[in-house]
Amino acid sequence: MERIGLPATTPLADKPFHTKRAHRKTRAGCRNCKARKVKCDEGRPGCRACTARNQTCIYTIPPKGPKPSSAPEQPGRPASSAMTVLHEPLFIPARHDELDMRLLWFYTTTTYTSFSTGGLRQRSVDIVLKVNVVQHAFANPFLMDCVLGLAAMHVNHLKLRHLGVPALKELAYRARALETYRRAVEAADPATFPALLACSLLLCGLSTHVFRGREAQPLAILDWMVLWKGIGTIVEVTRLPLRFQSSGIATLFFRPDADLDASAQRLPGYLLSIAASISAGDPDFPLVATYYAALQHLGSLYLELARGLGQMLLLRIATYPTFLPAAFINAARERRPRALVILAHYLVFVKLRVKTRWWMDGISDHEIPSIAAFLGPAWEHLLRVPVAALQLTDHEDIARLLLDDPPIGSAPKT
């Protein structure tokens, strides 16, 4: 069909002026088309209309606001003659910068899994860690500081340089998390109790920097156990009313029950002798019941290990410190040898979970030698298994060592 006054074969260059037709609005068109209120095909370097009219085609970056086909210009980048297009919009809430958002993304996709025990029927925590904890974090800055610090630490542990977390920035996140958490504990606002509990759990991972690198300290395990025990203390102090159950994070603190009598029977005899051999004149005599309690819960790890290397074993390993009596923690911090021997055997179990719990990586290899060096030759007969575990990396080999079950064909015990 021919237009009025123009043959159908007239080239576009000969008919730069034509009747306007209805079209969908464009927000990325050139300046000339916008002025003439016609549809721009957004061709580069010049659109068809400007080419036909022999005009210079100029594109401008659109103003801020909803942009269905583009994203806002990024801060710090100079405007260019061509529009900058991002594949996804960049949403940055108040108080947080782009690095914060990258770390929050890394936490919700990767870091949270190191606190998960998988699909246990009794403890389905993945959604809690990814959703509920993050919701509480946006409402409680001290928890957000902990989440970001943990993610930064994880990024650098994996040496993911492309995510751009300088070591000093990781240190700043961690220092801010510890300081804001301390202030929140002192404030003791009941509205923050669920977030405080979630933060106390994540801090147990964030604080493991003391076992690695330049910040490594001998026997740091003693202060670290206090952090773990602190989870139970916060539960007792806050008494967690119905607010805790409705907060969505209660499942994070599920602890499996243990048959302590059966657990004690599964302990190696030489460990039971630690408490049984204490006489009335021994300085540790007032701690006999305390040592038995710590050994019974340690026995639950041996009992679970005999059933296999499953998720329940990992959960028992993670929650063991929360069962320890306060008197045992104090005895360990006083460097009492029997308490340190028990901790050294617990550290052998910790080696079974480092592949999935990156923040526990290196703790056992750092602390078992520290304990052995502190106790000296007088206690080395009770540290045979922990010291031998230092040479092992395979989980089945470590399990056989703990269960005193050498593989077929190995040399007999002497």
From TrEMBL:
Signal sequence, start to end: none
Record's keyword annotation contains Transmembrane: no
InterPro entries: Fun_TF, Sterol_Uptake_Regulator, Zn2-C6_fun-type_DNA-bd_sf, Zn2Cys6_DnaBD
Region feature Disordered, mapped onto this chain: 61-80
Record keywords, A-Z: Nucleus
Gene Ontology molecular functions: DNA-binding transcription activator activity, RNA polymerase II-specific; zinc ion binding
Domain Zn(2)-C6 fungal-type residue range list: 29-59
Keyword Nucleus: yes
Descriptive protein name: Zn(2)-C6 fungal-type domain-containing protein
Organism: Trichocladium antarcticum
